[in-house]
Amino acid sequence: MLQTIAYQKGLETLADTLQQKGFQLISFQADSIGYDTLLYYEDQNHLFFQQFTKSVIHHSTSNNSGALLINVCNLSAEEVVNILSRRTYTPLFKSVTSV
User: Fold this and answer.
1) What are residue 26's DSSP bridge partners?
2) Does the residue 92 lie in any domain?
3) Which residue, 39, 93, 96, 97, is most buried by CB atoms nearer than 10 A?
4) Total domain count for the chain?
């Protein structure tokens, strides 16, 4: 089954690369529905995440099993392809090592 991937405004270059690799992409809007994965870019400002949280809960997927959220900050296109292929994304939180 082909998964639908929504992407945040500003990630058009990544979206074009993924589309060339055969993925189905749509631009994320507040009322977007029917996507299985959401690509977003978040470094330290959590504003975008806060803005789409309600939309993800109410409109996320076509199969009602939840959406895979991928923060593409510091990820290459190939790393994103690997995540999409495996449908897993870890770690959610990077461990901090004490010095």
Assistant:
1) 6
2) no
3) 39
4) 1
